[in-house]
Amino acid sequence: MVHTMQQLSSAEVKEAIRVSGSHVSRFGNWSGDCNPLHVDPAVASRTYFGRPIVHGALVVLEALAAVRDELPERLARLDVEFREAVYPEQAYEVCLACDQEQVTVEVGPEAASALIIRCAGERQPAEVCSARTDWVRALKREELGGSRRERPADRELDQLRAGLELSGVYSAAGEPDENWVGGPVTPAVAKVLALCSYLVGMELPGLRSLFTRLRLQFDGAAPADVDALAYRLRITRCDRAFRMVDASLEVATCEGVLIASAELRSYVRFSPTTTDLSKLSAALDRSKEGLAGKVALVCGASRGLGADLAAALAISGCRVYAAYRSSRADAERLNNSENKG
Predict the structure, then answer these.
(1) Parallel, antiparallel, or unpaired for β 209-218 and 75-82?
(2) Domain locations along the chain
(3) What is the pTM of this model?
(4) For the segment 212-236, what is each residue's pLDDT rounded down to a tens digit?
(5) Could you give the CA distance from residue 314 to residue 311 in angstroms, rounded to a whole number?
């Protein structure tokens, strides 16, 4: 789907950004979000995107860095829509529009909008937030040491339900890249964005996740930097029909000082493209007349729905010609597994 760039009042193109593959790897190592969709070309090639895509949180940091001088002195809220994938090594325009309420930043190739960031600053002097953080004190001692997954959790959609909760302590691997911080984007802000990326890409939903929306609110008295972040993540809604998961997030220091709260939305992608012939065969209605003697041409048959369709037709007795654009290895893998089956 193509989204046209919103016609923002007084909008102007400020910069063009290009996220390098090395920056993607660096962000993955620093944030802990090592989801293969971002860092493993072989796995990413078998997804809908066909190649790795840039972490959404990294695009936010790069875009905010490009318009740093135009942002509020202190960030109070960030509202981010992840509309389309951003690919490494590709140039994207950064457009800026300001009004009395907020600064709007759009990232996209020419007239398309891949990502929209709405930023708002403090309207009044910062006050200490009264939100309760008793949950921080309830963390177990081993959780206070902090830990990060090396591989993303592989959760099925039926394992994700409203009320599912996850808490712990998160630490980024050192300080953020100097290009990602400055002005209102403090190290603490960058680390909260890294935490959001890690939680979506590695924990909930995990392996099959695709970040689609992030709403962040920062506490006015939050420190500019912090070594570790205590967090509590809770799924508030799981729409199985549309494969969407909403979650609420609280972030605090290990001493119980609230730093930020957030709403995260993600899409649970279908499994990486491996056609399970046994399950597919069992699901077919064998009472119907077979397709022996029929010939079919399936385009895009190397992965995903195309691969499942090609396999189903072949199992039903059809002679199938499978067309693909670039995924030769996947097409050969499907052909070999079908011949064995």
Answers:
(1) antiparallel
(2) 12-268, 277-340
(3) 0.79
(4) 999 999 988 789 999 999 999 999 9
(5) 5
